């Protein structure tokens, strides 16, 4: 089992040990520094090291700590954002390029599993999307046409090989599935084997440009000619934070009473939709179902999201045991496609990859291939389509930055009289709550021993107030998705600083 960015543990994280780092020595100067130890960062690092660059990969926690460890790992060309939307926003040639790039990403992953003999259960599969009412049927019809026009191999089918009824469905060939962390680890090992350096538990705290890029991580500094931010969402303050909306998605793994695991990939058309597949892990088959998505920081009782997902699974499958429940974060780009390329508003030596929707395995791989081409100067048709600078300057952004900037609280040393403790009286161990006392807010967490931990709820990114996430026992920011542990330490970008600790004590007078 490895550490992750929340209280729950995914199926993949449960079944793997810490990555056995072999980088025992590191230097201070590199050609390219890559930040982020998920599929985007590790694949990019390997490809760039293979291309002859001297690369350093920095990870704030451990490889597979974030969404690569929390994905359900569908390898699909039938993406979360419909081809109808992609075509409408970017045109048919762009939709075709995305369909082709998605298929290439699956082929690339398969090639890597063969080249490095990776035991990650990679298997090809079909995808099925199905409609259960007239409105969904009409939308499915439009998507079937748009996906076919984009180049996908789509056919209509009358029934599903699944115990779920529908009124229409499409089948799409050329999909796949795998276990993401064994794949990630083998790519990381391959990177180290050709001289790449990985440093875990190394959080970047400052990025400066002094002719080259200078990175500060705690007490250490590193210099690179180029920097790739593969951190899911870039740290610091950037226009992309206004163009990517953070969501949480919920997943569970289950053993079924009979050995009738669905072997393909399935998507209903509910809002939010459910996604279904299976995977063998350590000799045991698991049904893996996801759904119940909502904007980050917008649901406090996220335990309810797990219960609703569980109820849905029990309704459709004969479940013997739910073995894991976990949630994970993704970023929805406002126009439907990710942002991969030079980071807007920065020097030309900083690259970014973000806004993958729920297709992180595919877009993470696409990002690595595209970034490699860009850094080698090789033309790539995706460069223009996915250019993060396709953004127009947004009116009012500077106002947004200063929004709430004057509300940072100074609350150190505050004493709460016993008479006011009713605010926290019903807080159970393991629960957190934002309370207001004397018109100032505190984010208070009661640990399993009953001890209270208090932090300022003001997010250190751009000063929105965080909310409690009961399922993951974290403080989640509804604005750009930064997340913090119960005691305020950073779990997710874009924040780089912990929530301000408040030393609050109860007093009886
Ligand atoms: Fe931007 Fe919290 S993540 S204000």
From TrEMBL:
Domain of life: Bacteria
GO CC annotations, alphabetized: cytoplasm; membrane
Keywords: 2Fe-2S, Disulfide bond, Iron, Iron-sulfur, Metal-binding
InterPro entries cross-referenced by the UniProt entry: FAD-dep_OxRdtase, FAD/NAD-bd_sf, Rieske_2Fe-2S, Rieske_2Fe-2S_sf, Rieske_Fe-S_prot_C, YhfW_C
GO molecular function: 2 iron, 2 sulfur cluster binding; metal ion binding
Domain Rieske, first and last residues per copy: 419-509
Protein name: Rieske domain-containing protein
Organism: Chitinophaga jiangningensis
């Amino acid at each position: 089992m490895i550490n992750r960015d929340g209280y729950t543990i995914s199926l993949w994280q449960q079944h793997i040990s810490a990555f056995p780092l072999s980088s025992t020595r590191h230097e201070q100067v590199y050609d390219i520094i890559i930040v982020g130890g998920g599929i985007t960062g590790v694949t990019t690092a390997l490809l760039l090291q293979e291309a002859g660059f001297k690369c350093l990969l920095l990870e704030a926690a451990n490889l597979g700590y974030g969404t690569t460890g929390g994905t359900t790992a569908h390898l699909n060309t039938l993406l979360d954002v419909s081809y109808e939307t992609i075509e409408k926003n970017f045109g048919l040639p762009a939709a075709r390029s995305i369909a082709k790039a998605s298929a290439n990403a699956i082929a690339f992953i398969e090639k890597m599993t063969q080249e490095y003999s990776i035991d990650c259960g990679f298997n090809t599969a079909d995808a099925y999307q199905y409609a259960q009412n007239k409105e969904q049927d009409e939308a499915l019809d439009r998507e079937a046409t748009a996906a076919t026009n984009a180049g996908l191999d789509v056919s209509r089918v009358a029934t599903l090989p699944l115990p779920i009824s529908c009124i229409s469905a499409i089948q799409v060939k050329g999909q796949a599935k795998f276990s993401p962390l064994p794949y990630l680890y083998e790519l990381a090992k391959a990177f180290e084997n050709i001289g790449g350096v990985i440093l875990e538990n190394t959080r970047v705290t400052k990025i400066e440009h002094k002719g080259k890029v200078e990175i500060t991580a705690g007490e250490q500094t590193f210099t690179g000619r180029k920097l790739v931010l593969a951190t899911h969402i870039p740290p610091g303050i950037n226009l992309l934070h206004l163009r990517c909306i953070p969501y949480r998605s919920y997943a569970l793994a289950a053993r079924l009473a009979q050995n009738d695991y669905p072997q393909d990939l399935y998507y209903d058309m509910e809002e939010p939709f459910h996604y279904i597949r299976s995977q063998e892990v350590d000799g045991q088959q698991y049904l893996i179902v996801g759904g119940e998505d909502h904007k980050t920081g917008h649901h406090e009782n996220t335990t309810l999201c797990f219960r609703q997902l569980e109820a849905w699974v029990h309704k459709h499958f004969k479940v013997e045991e739910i073995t894991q429940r976990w949630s994970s974060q993704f970023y929805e780009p406002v126009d439907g496609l990710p942002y991969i390329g030079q980071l807007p508003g920065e020097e030309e030596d900083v690259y970014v990859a973000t806004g993958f929707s729920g297709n992180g395995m595919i877009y993470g791989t696409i990002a690595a291939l595209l970034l490699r081409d860009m850094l080698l100067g090789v033309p790539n048709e995706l460069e223009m389509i996915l250019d993060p600078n396709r953004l127009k300057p947004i009116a009012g952004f500077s106002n947004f930055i200063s929004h709430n900037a004057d509300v940072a609280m100074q609350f150190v040393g505050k004493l709460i009289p016993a008479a006011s403790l009713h605010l926290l009286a019903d807080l159970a161990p393991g629960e957190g709550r934002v309370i207001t006392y004397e018109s100032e807010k505190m984010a208070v967490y009661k640990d399993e021993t009953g001890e209270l931990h208090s932090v300022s709820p003001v997010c250190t990114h751009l000063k929105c107030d965080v909310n409690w996430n009961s399922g993951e026992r974290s403080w989640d920011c509804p604005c750009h998705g930064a997340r913090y542990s119960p005691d305020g330490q950073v779990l997710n970008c874009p924040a780089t600083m912990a929530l301000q600790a408040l030393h609050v004590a109860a007093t009886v007078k």
